[in-house]
């Protein structure tokens, strides 16, 4: 037998002999050349980076990217020979059906897990789509509790859910009001119309009357809404002691600015998961409208040096250190911990590792991570207040770095 290669004629005996020599050299003489390099682990990073929710979605993506870059720079996943995380970025376009379609693409691309997708309505769709393929899905925000009450064993929400947040918000509101001599008795609620805002309003209407507050009116608005003048006129006419807004960033900012322009200042603007009230961008761009606004929301431990170092890094990139950034950063780190313990990119192995998580090396004001039916029961919100053009933690006391100002001074 004669083999022809690149114009040379080589006898079969000579070819086999040369092959044997090359193989031997690879084993003993040149291991670095033939040694298999660690494979990458494909991770779906799914957020609404276009459409009405784009400002938040882009922040989410930034947080995930920074975590992936740091993990890879520090050697990747050690238990898998230093395998690096390979992000596959997907855009839900602020639409649940598009989010579900993107999950299908991520499945075809071989994603081992998915992190995202910020909004509750999108999360309801993407977690269901991921469950069909057994893809572990770490939910970054998506506070509606239905996300984790449908028995989807692939779904893991790192942050607190709506019920936990509302209970904490009301508990802290009652404490504030009692300490001040109960100046607040009446409430108006303004909320966006999706699953997030509608769910929030429903829960508040159920619970506030039992805590001594009269809900004068609940107003729903569309996403997007570009004019809040009529809504603010209603607020002015009803003159509530408290205003509780629950909406996404753009609408929250416009509502706050319209209140300022029309000189409407209740005793407190006490938001629950306010889209801008825990955002440095809002504070810096509209400090007068933002001052004294309170919020019960996701936040980091302000005493944690790792969080403060990340904040500097984010701000050095001319971005804002928002909850979207740090929640996604920590969700990726949670996934990396699961990968280390699973020592595998197999979806089932990752799901089992997440279900058994006890991860505590985060910078959130949480206890160790423990998932019960997909919910991290160690997660908890905090109360913040915008004071002197900064965002301060006022509750709980263990994490507080300022005292609350309540009622707010008149403008």
Outline the structure in words.
The protein has 411 residues and is α/β, with parallel strands linked by helices. The chain folds into two domains: 41-159 and 303-380, Rossmann fold (3-Layer(aba) Sandwich); 163-297 and 383-395, Rossmann fold, CATH 3.40.50. Helices cover 42% and strands 19% of the residues. It has 14 helices and 16 strands. The strands form four sheets. It has a seven-stranded mixed β-sheet with strand order 9-8-10-11-12-15-16, sandwiched between helices. α3 (54-73) links the parallel β3 and β4 (85-91). It is globular and about 65 Å long. The relative contact order is 0.12. Residues 1-35 have low confidence and may be disordered.
Give the name of the CATH superfamily of the largest domain. Response regulator
Q: Please give the number of β-strands.
A: 16
Could you tell me the radius of gyration in angstroms? 26 Å
* Helix amount: 40-55%
